[in-house]
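The following record pairs a protein chain with its ligand, guanosine-5'-triphosphate.
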Amino acid sequence: MFVKTAEFIASNTDVRKLPEPSLPEYAFIGRSNVGKSSLINAMVNKKGLAKTSQKPGKTQLINHFIINKDWYLVDLPGYGFAQTSKKNRAEWERFIRRYLTQRENLQCIFVLIDSRLEPQKIDLEFCCWLGEQGLPFLLVFTKADKQSGVKSDQNIAKFRKALLAWFEDVPSIFLTSAEKKQGMEEILATIDEINKNFIPPIVEQQ
Ligand code: GTP
Ligand code: MG
């Protein structure tokens, strides 16, 4: 897919105020600082569209972007951000989970995982929760430029193995680097395929 236009639409904390669910939507989620916003910018080739930071906890809202006037891309706050209170964390979790389970036009959730790390409990648990909810997700390993391909492959293999303790099968996996623009075409091609089958949900008139 060629990205012609990528525009910011809105930031929200309220699931009821999101844009109308008339277009297919894709959410990017993962631990704080895993590289969600950077990946989005690399995918659409627009530096600074989604705000990035070296400090975890940068993205705090549900951020909608519209791509080619045809589909929504959503940047979400990260989970597992340690420097916040327990209450705050629980609040965010509820809010993100509500969005993920209630958004009718959400086609697929891209779960981002740091390719430098051994499988982390928090990521595995999150994938299991998505599975339990019956929500479709794919795995995106980030920051591949930070180490050798062998090391990334080892961590991916370990993650697959850990997931197979819970799932019969493991979803598609992408190895990416926002820095080197690696893996972007593959993700966009997947979105393109899913978009072809999108049927807008019927929205009840108030
Ligand atoms: P929160 O919004 O805080 O949850 O973080 P995020 O997941 O959106 O991460 P963000 O894109 O802000 O990136 C965090 C840090 O990782 C920044 O310093 C980025 O420059 C860096 N980073 C992200 N992706 C890559 C990558 O592919 N390679 C390298 N080398 N650095 C990356
Ligand atoms: Mg972010």
